[in-house]
TrEMBL record:
Residues 4-38 form the Putative zinc-finger domain. InterPro entries: Znf_put. This is Putative zinc-finger domain-containing protein. The lineage of its organism: Bacteria, Pseudomonadati, Pseudomonadota, Gammaproteobacteria, Moraxellales. It comes from Acinetobacter tjernbergiae DSM 14971 = CIP 107465.
Length: 59
């Protein structure tokens, strides 16, 4: 089982690269039981979407 630190690291890396199958499955297992990491994942996804929108309108 991943620690929260490992899970948040993978969530961050997921924004930049495709996770390998083992990373994906370990992360999903952790997210099933950890509310805080699920919330963190939603937050970084939202920030990523907002930054893409900002860059699009900045041009």
């Amino acid at each position: 089982m991943l620690t929260c630190r490992q899970a948040t690291q993978l969530l961050s890396e997921k924004q930049d690269r495709q996770l390998v199958l083992r990373e994906q499955s370990n992360l999903q297992l952790h997210l099933l039981v950890c509310r805080s990491c699920r919330r963190y994942g939603k937050q970084i996804k939202t920030l990523s979407q907002l930054s893409k929108t900002f860059i699009k309108y900045d041009d």
